[in-house]
Amino acid sequence: MGSNGKKWLAAGLAALVCCAAPTGTIRVFGEEESVSQNGIEAETEEQDLQDSAGVKTEEQILQNSVEPEAAGPAAQNEIMLTALDSAGIGIRYQGTDFKGTLGGEIAYDTYIGSSGGHELMVTVDGDSLEAAVYCIISSPTDSVTEDVLKSQSDWNAIPQPGLQISLDGQKDGKYVVGVKVTQGEEEVYAVSKGFVVDRTAPVIRTKSGTEMTDGGVYPAGTVFQVEDDSPVDVYMNDDFTAPVEAADGRYTVTPKAGSNSCVIKAEDKAGNVKSLSLTIEGGGTDVGPAGVIAESKSYSLQSDTAYTLGEGAWRVAGDPNVYPGGITFYVTTAGGYAFQKQ
Asked: Are residues 209 and 272 both part of a single domain?
């Protein structure tokens, strides 16, 4: 073959390689590197030709078919889970913030009585979340930490709608409510403030411990005390605006002016009320209406009844002590007592 024929054959083979290697790696007689380079050049030329003709290559079609990942609900939830912590959980009671502090001191300033409709509202980042659960811890003596909540086993799903926790079924006692939100493998905790459930009306007893009854007959000056698990205000007769002040935790039955009746009303912080309408009788022989002992003689005194010594200094038969006038006293045993003014 002449030199011109060899040149023509080499040129033809080069053209054939360029047309036959659009993509990938082509092995031709072990010359991978040079053929691959030629293949890339051929691919570029082929793409230019196809683009000019309006035809897309397979790689271009695949690239165009891949769309950016949409930020759907799953992606949004994942962001929220990463940001959620205890600060993102809200607890409210009667429209006000009722969230306590994990590990902080528990204050029992809220009292829940016998009326219904007492509920806690739980929110997560401002929105209700179905995944939240709660537990009610009775009479915690120390602060409630996250570890304390993790040790609880009695968790209940917070019912819908509104993630409301009813407190109406609890017995009398002190409580806090723990909240746990589980999102994926993450558990986030929060705790409410402390509250007292008190659905029992106050009990009114004489000093000796006998419970006083509505419609009962008692001497003027009878000393009584009020028992309740919550702070109590005591009112007497027609004045139900200003509570009566107790002396050493005790009160004294005082009749209405010009009558022989007395009304006692005791109301605790939870709204429970106990009212007694009493009939008052004279405290003892010749003892004045205010229970004042003013003369030297024997008096028949009742137990649980307050009496006052008149002016001067006084002795009581069988008692070596001298008592100054003006003091108020009561006897533990009813009976006759002889007083001598000094």
From this structure: yes
